Amino acid sequence: MAELLIRNSSVGFIKAIIFDKDGTLSNSEEYLLELAKTRIKFAVNKFRKSKINNLKIILLKKLLNSIYGLSKEAISANGSLAIASREQNIISTATVFNLFGFDWFQSHSMSEELFDEVDIFLSNNRENMQKSRTLIPGAFDLLVSLKAKGVCIALMTNDTQAGIKEFIFKNKLERIFDYLWSAENKPSKPKPEAVIELCKKMNLNPSECALISDADTDLRMAKQADLPIVVGFTGGWKNPPTLTEEKFLIEKLNELKIHSSN
């Protein structure tokens, strides 16, 4: 086992660390901001084609801003776009559409179509692709250090397998992660069973693992799965997330150090 230190103080011994991705390893705020704005723009265009009046379109923008966590030129680290899965965001968007008189089938279909159209638009826009998921300062050094000390490294995210693959490829992390858990794995986070199943996949007990994330949903999930070391991280956003579920709190990834027990 390896000893995990926070600000040079030991917090326990581990065999594995489970990392969240967006806002923890990945500097995704700029990309998510563009994603939110584009989805809202496309939604407005859909409503205008349906002859929805301007007052209702203003209300639509306000509601979508709220559920996505968009405020001025920033995305909330505690909003649905930052934390929830693609499917969960499709449902929340469809719920907003439903409020404007579309039945549920229409609302869900419109939402799915909207998300697909935005994905295609952004993937064809090279400038937006450049904003995708660069590493947060200190992330690469920390991952390499953990790998060198023999610590098992897992990535657990609500992103898709394709999104994970892109993140790993763009940041040259092909040999870093031992295990991956995406939104397509079941159960998905934030169910504590997701952590328990991931630990089984790693052939480890939850008591031998730590988790680090910028989201209370993840931190609570880890505690409910009986992980002894649950680390909240606030340094991945311009406006740091408000966290209440952590056992330990860090602002920079270089506050974490690992010592081999060998």
Summarize the structure.
The protein has 262 residues and is α/β, with parallel strands linked by helices.
Describe what you observe in this structure.
The chain is an alpha/beta fold and 262 residues long. It is 44% helix and 19% strand. It is built from 10 helices and 13 strands. The strands form 4 sheets. It has a 6-stranded parallel beta sheet, sandwiched between helices. It has a 3-stranded antiparallel beta sheet with strand order 2-1-13. Helix 10 links the parallel strand 10 and strand 11. Helix 1 runs antiparallel to helix 2, helix 1 packs across helix 5 and helix 4 packs across helix 5. It is elongated and about 65 Å long.
Low-pLDDT parts are none
Walk across the major sheet and give the strand order.
Answer: 9-8-3-10-11-12
Computed Rg = 19 Å
SSE topology string: EEEEHHEEHHHHEHEHEHEHEEE
Largest beta-sheet characterization: 6 strands, parallel
CA-based shape: elongated
Distance between the termini: 8 Å
pLDDT averaged over residues: 92
* Count of DSSP-assigned helices: 10
Q: Beta fraction of the residues?
A: 15-25%
Q: Strand tally, please? A: 13
* Secondary structural class: alpha/beta
Helix content: 40-55%
